[in-house]
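Q: For a teaching session next week I want to show students how multiple molecules come together into a single three-dimensional assembly. I've collected the sequence lines for a complex. Could you give me the predicted structure tokens for the whole thing so I can convert them for display?
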Amino acid sequence: MISERLKRVILRELELEEFPLTADTVAADVPGWDSLSHVRVIDAVEAEFQLRFRSLEILRVRSVGDLQRLIDARQLGRTA
Amino acid sequence: MRWTWGRLVASAAGVAEWLTAAGVRPGDVCAIVQRHHPAFHPLYLGVCAAGAIPSVLAYPNARLHPEKFASGLSGMARHSGLDFVLTEKALAPVISPLVGGPGSSIRGLLFPVEDGWAPADPAGLRPARAADDPCLLQHSSGTTGLQKAVVLSHRAVLDHVARYAEAVRLDAAADRIVSWLPLYHDMGLIATYQMALAEGVPTVQLDPFEWVTAPSLLLEAISAERGTLTWLPNFAFAFLADRVRDGDLEGVSLGTMRLWVNCSEPVRADSHARFLRRFAPRGVRPETLAACYAMAETTFAATQTAPGRPAKTLAVDRGALAEGAVEPARAERAARICVSSGAPIGGCTLRVVDADRRPLPSGRVGELAIASESLFDGYRNRPEDTARVLSGRWYYSGDLGFEHEGEYYVIGRKKDLIIVAGNNLYPEDIEDEVGRVPGVLPGRVVAFGVEDAARGTEQVQVVAETELAGGPERRRLEDEIVRAAMRLDVTVARVHLVPPRWLIKSSSGKPSRSANRERIVSGALEQPERGVA
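A: Of course. Below is the structure for the complete assembly, covering every listed component.
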């Protein structure tokens, strides 16, 4: 399940008004989300959720669902 | 994984035997379409050892539509005469239909990395190849048959890497190259790989896809391996400066670096300045920021800045420059900071010529022409394209620049090529794809590159004529145009929809890219527009 907050930050960073982001969405499906803008999206997500990902974690992200799970795991770790 | 020379050569000998058993003969062209993998290295050398000619091609990324990849490969097969494709089984469904098909030269599809080979005795590794026989084919990018294959002989490559090693004062005992560059690009293949092999310099090769996802990997590798040399397209200087986070730099030292060579896109002073500001605390010194002017047609480099001093910069008057003259800028506002790409390397001569290919004096802007002992032997099977750019011992580059105090400054292009992050894109490919989108008037599209100062590279913009007038319809059309370019793995940063007959035509009757680009950049467009990336 992709949170509205994550969808919003991705769309804002890519300057998209609307795009049906789902857990299975990969960057290649989304206009403007190319290899160069990927780091920008990750930066924006980190800033929004006040998180820092490690390089290895970022390399493992294959889909929007992976990104959501990474955020969830971190936020869970922070509240635990 | 680390290769030693002994293991690499024995493994390459095994590849050569394996390929020969699979039917590869001396002189056959073997396209290598392989993701970053340690086995690439013996595979590439094994093709050479079998007496065949390697051509490293880009592995298609997820964005590129399989049909577009297949049509690009088919175009290369048609023009370059590819005999075998060495690839991964994942691509078999896309490539298999091209094998043995009508008009296709491709005789076989092989999966050496997955099927495996055994190392062999390198003593048998001396195929009867002459110095002037082709050593490799370097393909330009493109998807609709525009790709040209530069043929380089063994002599050209070996002479070139020796000359270039002198220009960067390569020291086999002390230097260590670290690179994230793809090896289908001449900068990666020649500067970071062939030169390392020929000169016996260790080279650390990173996965380009991983680097672009986590750019600090390059800096971590330099620090861990005590790297001294790297080559980067201009955008990478800005990208590293903007995107590497402080947390990733803990314990990273860049003080071993001797040269960060900026090459493959026009060098931008601002990108160097940002890079230096960001990484000086980690040991980057101004004199290590170097530049080089290179192209596949001259094997690689034509000029190089002198090691040990920073690339020179020149503040010139923008207005005068537009008129073709290099004059010192009188006011900062009117200045364009041009960065030198250095002096010609050994074996290379440059001159600046006018539209009739007559030499221009120092301080005048014109096309850069290069005479090099490592000049290519022409575009394979494309005599007309070759004749257009090669005349006597001179190669006419299509790049615009000037000479000042013995150094060359590249400031633009005569040709319509777009360079995004070091990748060459043909506007024709984009226009062809966009032109097929329903709602776009057939043939009434232009694509061009516009300076993207923030990213230190160019961005692609498209202007398309349409009769659609409604807001929602137009927005949908813009989205469809962006998606059409995505199928070519091209990101369109802006779409400008214009009414019929808006586009300015060139003398040939086709819409002119340069005139329409000028019209857009100067703000003459009164249509609503929307940024999409």
